[in-house]
Batch of 2 targets.
Target 1
Amino acid sequence: MDFSFVILQFLTGLAYASSLFLLAVGLSLIFGALGIVNFAHGSFYMLGAYLLYWVVHGNPEGLWWGLVVVAALGFVVGAATERLLLRPVYDRPEHYQILLTYALLLVIEDGVKLFFGAAYKSLGPPAALAYPVWIAGAPFPAYYFVQIALAMLVAAALWFFLQRTRSGALVRAATQDREMLEALGINVPRLLTAVFALGIALATLGGAATLPMQTVSPGIAVEAVISAFIVVVVGGLGSVWGALLGAFLIGEIQAFGVLVLPEFAIAFVYLLMVVVLLVRPWGLLGRPPAVRT
C-alpha cells in the first residue's frame, strides 16, 4: 500500500462523508429545534435526486442551476409538510410523530415510483468535471472535489447563520426555551416552519448533489434514513457539528474498512455506533437529555 493509494482512499472517504453530512445535517437541525425524529428524512433525500434528474431532463450540463432549483423546491415542500402535517401533532405523544413521518416516507417512496417510475436513475457530471484529477500519479474523480467543497460551504454557511445572525440566535434559543421566545413576541410557529423547511432543503440538496456519484432508486430512501440516523447517533442528535464529525468518522471508516475486511466493512460503522452509545449515549458532540428543556 503506497502513499498515493492512502491519499486516494482518504479523499474517497471524505467525498462519502460529505454526502453523509448533507444527508444528516438537516435531520440533526430539525431535531435540535423541533424535537422531532423525522423518519421521512431519507425520502426527501431520495426525492432531491429524482427532482434534479427531472429538472435538468437528464442533461448533466444543467447540474449547477438544477441544484439551486431542487434546494428551493425542497424548502417549499418542507414548509408545506411542517405546516399541514406535523404542526397538528406537536402536542400529541411522540409515537404519533414517529408513525406520521414513517408513513410519509412510504407515501413519498410510492409517489416517486408513480411519477418517475421504479427504474434506476443516473446523471453523469458536467463535461468540465468528466475527466479525473491525477493525484500522485493516480486518477481521482473531479466531481468528488465538488461534493467535498459543497459540504464545506454548507457547514460554513450554517455556522455563520447560527452564530452570527439574529435568526440563527432565535433558532438556538428555540432549542432551549420556546415559551420564553413566545413571551418576547417571537412568532415561534413560523420560526419552526422555517427550520424544518431548511432541514428538508438540505436533504433534497444532498440527494441531488449525490446523483452524479451514484445511481438512485426509490429504495434508497430507507437506506438513506438509516445512514442519517447512524451519523447523528455517533455525532450527537441535534448537533450540527456532531453531524459533521459523525459523517467524517463514518466516511473514513468505510473507506479504509474495505481494505482490512471488505466483507465486514459496514460492521466497523455499526461497531463505532455501539461504542459511542456505550460511552456517550448522547453522541460525541451531543448534550445529555437533562440539559434540554
Note: The chain has a mean pLDDT of 90.
Target 2
Amino acid sequence: MESMDSGATSPLLKVSELRARPATEAGAPAADEILRGLNLTVNQGEVHAIMGPNGSGKSTLGNTLLGSPEYELTGGSIELHGRSVTDDSPDERARAGMFLAFQYPQEIQGVSVIQFLRQALSARKGIDLSVLELRLAAMEWMKRLGMDSSFVDRYLNEGFSGGEKKRNEIMQMAILEPDLAILDETDSGLDIDALRIVASGIREVRADRPHMGIVMITHYQRLLDEVQPDVVHIMVDGRIVESGGLELAERLEREGYESLRSDARR
C-alpha cells in the first residue's frame, strides 16, 4: 500500500509517481534518482508520519515537495488543493499554503526572529502586521513553547540550541498558518523534555487549525507517541512500501526495516 485516502473529493496533497534526483551542474553526469515513483495522499486535518532508514529519501521528499533547487524532478506530479504545484517555485508553494520545518534550520545573521516572521507573513499572506501586533502574537506562542520573551529579538537561529531551533520552527508554523506543514525530523537532537514541548506545540497548532495537514518525517516512535498520527508510512529506497496505523511503527521497533527492504526489492 503506498497511500491512504479517506475518500475526500479533493485531497489537500496528492503526490503521484514522484521521481527526483540531486540537481547537477550543466554538463555534469546526472545523479542517481533518490525518489523512485513515490505516491502519497494527505487529506485536510490528517497527520501522516513518514519513517524509514537512513538514505531512504525522507528528507529529499520534504525538500522536493517545497521545490528546493537542490533537487531535480524527473517525473511525477505534486498537487495542493487539486492544483498542480509541480512547476511552482518555493515562494509560490509557500504562498499557496505549504510550509517546511527544516531538519537543520539555517542561521541568518543580522535578521531577528521578529523581522523574519514579519517578512515571511507578508510574503505568505500579503499581511503587513506592525511589529507590535506580531510581537504580541509571537509572545503567546513563545509562552506555549516554553521560550523566553526576548527570543524574538535574537538573530534567526544564531547561537540557538537544537531545542530552540525546533521550537522556533513550530512558532513559525503557528503564525504563518499554512494549509500543509512538512516537519523534517523535528525531533532530531531533542531530549525528552524538549520533545514533549515541541509535540505539545504541534498539538496546539492543530487545535487552532483543525483543517491543516501535517507530514512528519521521523526516525523515532517517540514523536508518534506524543502526536498520534492518523497514518504511518514506511519509506524504503525512494518509495512508500507500506502504510498503516501506529501498530506499524510498533512493528518497526520490534523487527526493524529488513523485512520491508525485502518487500521493496520485489
Note: Confidence is low (pLDDT under 50) at residues 1-8.
